[in-house]
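Lab notebook page, bench 4
Experiment: in silico fold of construct C2
Operator: M.H.
Input chain length: 37 residues
Purpose: comparison with the prior construct
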Amino acid sequence: MEEIKQEIIEVIKKLDIHNDKRSLLMIKNYIISFLKR
């Protein structure tokens, strides 16, 4: 589980560089719902 979280964090960091807040928010919401399962 921790490895998955690390990968997700890396992806989010890469997206942050592009400053695409809307897709970043969508992805974060998707990840949160995915992790809650």
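Observations: The two ends are 12 Å apart (CA to CA). The mean pLDDT is 77.
Next step: discuss at group meeting.
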